[in-house]
């Protein structure tokens, strides 16, 4: 087997892609190196890729604070519950709209398209959440974001592309709509369900703005809000608002901040490989109508 000679274009292309990879990898590697360094080495904002002294004191400090562990658990709970709610609402609504026999189907589609162009804004949304009594509750983060028009339209297109003969065969066997959805449609729709599951999980895990607006109790803060207090607001406010021990809080340096960021990244990084095989396929299947 003869090896193809690399052209000048191939060489430039490889170097360019390697450069892009380094631009992405180096910041994460730097954060990992700082998180594994002692406080004395991380002070001053010096750039290095390998710690002179390896230590896990930053991670031990983080997991010794109740607020960090509690916030991590809050994020896991919020992400799991929010993803399940989003999937239930999106799948059932998209399946209903994909049925051409549904009364008022066109009007519902027009209303969904309208929401893609116009929205009430942040203040009316806050007033609505407040009037429903959802303030300082995780439902204030989940229910307003239970689904969106883009998700519904993509899933609807995917469901419409499934063979109608499968539905007809199930109906001949006496299956109702819910039985068809659960036993026929969902097993055939795993690529697009896995794709949007990842979208929903990343959205809930990384969301901090909604939590800042609707959650006033620090005990209910997700991890991203706590990270904001640590990295952006500063150590003093972090200690005051998170109710941490001041002696421990005085030790918060760049190594602890980087360690917190690394820990916050790990769950999504671990989940992605399990959904990756469906991701590329699912992202395209529902966006093209045959």
From TrEMBL:
Stated name of the protein: Carbohydrate ABC transporter permease
Phylogenetic lineage: Bacteria, Bacillati, Bacillota, Bacilli, Bacillales
Keyword Transmembrane on entry: yes
Membrane topology value: Multi-pass membrane protein
SUPFAM superfamilies in the cross-refs: MetI-like
Pfam families to which the protein is assigned, alphabetical: BPD_transp_1
Originating organism: Paenibacillus residui
Family: Belongs to the binding-protein-dependent transport system permease family.
Localization annotation: Cell membrane
Coiled coil: none
Record CDD domains: TM_PBP2
Domain of life (superkingdom): Bacteria
Keywords: Cell membrane, Membrane, Transmembrane, Transmembrane helix, Transport
Keyword Transmembrane recorded: yes
Membrane-crossing segments per the record: 12-32, 76-97, 109-127, 139-159, 180-205, 256-275
Boundaries of every ABC transmembrane type-1 domain copy: 72-275
